[in-house]
Write a structure and sequence with these properties.
Blueprint lengths: L1 H16 L28 H13 L8 H35 L46 E10 L4 H13 L5 E5 L10 E9 L2 H6 L1 H6 L6 E5 L2
Helix pairs in contact: 1-2
Amino acid sequence: MTELLDERQGALRFVDETCPRCGSRRAYDQRFCIDCGEPLPTVTGRIASLRRRWIRRLGWYPGDWIWLPLLALVVAAAGAAAAVVVVHHRHKGALRVITALSSVPVAEPRAVPAVTATAPTGTLPKPPEPTTATGKPGRAVWPAGRTGWTIVLVSYPKTTGRPTATQTAAQAAHRGLPDVGVLDSSRYASLQPGYFVVFSGVYDSQSEANAAILTAHQAGFGAAYSRQIAG
């Protein structure tokens, strides 16, 4: 339990003290990342408070964009509840009409002779054997010596430990993202050292990687971005 709390506290410090796009350190009142120019989320106010509560409970955070869809979901749920109430009242009126018509005489249906089906005596075809996927989700490995592009979903400081990154990778794989794994950024010259990087996909060009960013955002990783990996 203590280890889990330490991991989530580390994830909270990472969100408050680093750029969500490139992982560079940021000042408390800094508005833009000095390395990549990304607008930085505020660390004060209502949104920041909700962000910290989310991380303390779940250990990860999809991005500030999540609050608008959640608000729309609440409004939609309220509308659905109102529609159920209206339909319920309408059905009560319909029941009264059915009760009034119950006194109308109805002719008894005639019996229909039963037909006995004969089962075939031949040999039935065997169903195909199910296939089993090998490997665990979220454990993809970057090809040795490969230089290409990928989607960086989230980066965790190595001080928080690898289990948090591995858990996030498994969640991303279960949400349908392809080729999800964890990179040690210190082993790749194109990445800033000192992080466990959760990635998705191996692409030959930046344009191919950029085309997959929207899918990552829809899977809950609002800060995902493309990045070249030098193998």
